[in-house]
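Something for you to look into today, if you have time. Could you write out one complete protein record for me, on any chain you like? The space below this message is yours for that.
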Amino acid sequence: MTRKILIVEDDRQMRQELKILLDNSGYEGEILEDFSDVLGSIISMDPDLVLLDIKLPGQSGQMILRDLRAKSQVPVIMVTSMDSEMDEVLSMSWGADDYITKPYNPTLLLLHIEALFKRLGRPVEKESLTYRGVKVNLLKSTLETEYGDILLSKNEITIFRCLLMKQGSIVSRDELMDDLWDNHEFVDDNTLTVNINRLRRKLGEIGLEDVVQTRRGQGYVLV
């Protein structure tokens, strides 16, 4: 899934530029337009990360962060035009995950965001799953049977895990491509088709023919 980043910035031009930067970099940039209840908006919008300006109308970003930390552990990068060590100290003491000063290099901001997501990591997943008596080893990227193991590529194991986690339900091509993108694998529509066909062939080698079925115009389902 594409990570959603909420931009809490009162400078209209800057927040529009930030949204374009984030959207073009594989994220989903969302802009907070109404500053009457910033805390409530952050909670209700449920972003994966917040870019929070320190200087906001009505209430400082630091006070918003303090109140936010009483209700949520959403990652927050504080953004300010003030080059002050005291701002950094206060921000980090209230629970900010990172801090960047304006004006900043867009590439530097993206590196801060990527490093934060990498540091926080994803929720811990099981090392293995089971499907029709076959052990799906996510760490080794293998399908393990009593007759031997089948090695899957990184794309193939990602696709199979996604289908298996939603077994019996249709998974759209867009969902699969988003999942692959989130695992830092760029794929286009043709590449996805190739990987689906390879996965089907390998599943067939261990007696699991026709378990990945196409739903025309909708996606795929693991039966």
User: Anything to note?
Assistant: The longest helix spans residues 189-205. Residues 53 and 86 are 15 Å apart (CA to CA).
